[in-house]
């Protein structure tokens, strides 16, 4: 991928500062990455697998925290969201408090340098964070490798990793996460047709930690 400002902390700090101001002005929580269907897809899968409602869930790069709010509304009780942007965490705290979801824990954390207490999660969810890391102008390849190391340190053995990406194909993601994880299934995502070929604008995969 070409390096992009979308891979920099400065970009996301500025973006979430704007969204924080908008929320304070209008009550609008801002953009939902990959749309509401992407959240419903994750929640449907967890329900289908009968994942216990008290399972520990980590949302990697939580942004405005809306996914965690939806999980809480679906009955999940052990929810943590992290983001390296303090503005994102401020926004997600305001969204959480507005919705009255006190069982959501939010922390400013850089997933590429996780703190010691960030461990033992049974479910890790990523909607676009790995995509953003892949666009970092400063050693994106090294950061992707560190992402995998961090993931394997915070996710319990046998734990599930659900990733949604618009930059990576299924085959590419299988290659990126082949060490320490195995693919369980590909989740259905919207298809499009262009020039007679059918493709997916988004890839959603479920891995299990070995």
UniProtKB/TrEMBL annotation:
Catalytic activity as recorded in UniProt: L-lysyl-[protein] + 3 S-adenosyl-L-methionine = N(6),N(6),N(6)-trimethyl-L-lysyl-[protein] + 3 S-adenosyl-L-homocysteine + 3 H(+)
One GO process term, biological-process aspect: methylation
Ranges where the Methyltransferase domain occurs: 56-183
Keywords: Cytoplasm, Methyltransferase, Nucleus, S-adenosyl-L-methionine, Transferase
Record keyword Phosphoprotein present: no
InterPro entries in the cross-refs: Efm4/METTL10, Methyltranfer_dom, SAM-dependent_MTases_sf
Cellular compartments per GO CC: cytoplasm
Alphabetized Gene3D superfamilies for the sequence: Vaccinia Virus protein VP39
Gene Ontology molecular functions: protein-lysine N-methyltransferase activity
UniProt signal peptide: none
Pfam families per UniProt: Methyltransf_31
Protein name according to UniProt: EFMT2 methyltransferase
